[in-house]
């Protein structure tokens, strides 16, 4: 389970290389406007202009792992250098591919 939570944290804090290595081809991500829905290569391309988070905490986390599929659900509290705190309810779905987990879907809903 720690492997999945570590991969999830890296999606928030790491850069493009992690996304390229750990995102399934054809993955779907849903973010609040103005970003919206990103699929496949657009996810990686969208990172080029996006500032990275400097800190993230996962609260109220739960996970389900079954038959090579995993779903993480959690409340995120993140911040960037000099930016306002960001809070969201998130879900991420992974599938086991060979010897590693690949992200197939991620969704964020802003939260107070």
Question: If you had to describe this structure to a student in words, what would you say it looks like?
Answer:
About 25% of the residues lie in helices and about 50% in strands. The chain has about 110 residues and is of the alpha+beta class. The protein has one domain: Nuclear Transport Factor 2, Chain: A, CATH 3.10.450.50. The chain has a 6-stranded mixed sheet. The longest helix is centred in the first third of the chain and has 12 residues. This is Nuclear transport factor 2 family protein. Pfam families: DUF4440.
Task: Tell me briefly what this model is.
This is Nuclear transport factor 2 family protein. The protein has 112 residues and is α+β, with helices and mostly antiparallel strands. 23% of the residues lie in helices and 51% in strands.
């Amino acid at each position: 389970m720690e492997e999945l939570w570590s991969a999830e944290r890296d999606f928030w804090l790491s850069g493009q290389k992690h996304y390229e290595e750990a995102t399934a081809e054809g993955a779907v991500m849903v973010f609040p406007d103005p970003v919206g829905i990103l699929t496949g290569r657009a996810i990686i391309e969208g990172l080029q202009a996006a500032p990275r988070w400097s800190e993230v905490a996962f609260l109220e986390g739960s996970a389900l792992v079954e038959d090579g599929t995993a779903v993480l659900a959690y409340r995120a509290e993140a911040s960037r250098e000099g930016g306002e705190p960001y809070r969201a309810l998130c879900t991420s779905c992974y599938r086991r591919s060979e010897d590693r987990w690949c992200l197939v879907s991620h969704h964020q809903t802003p939260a107070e």
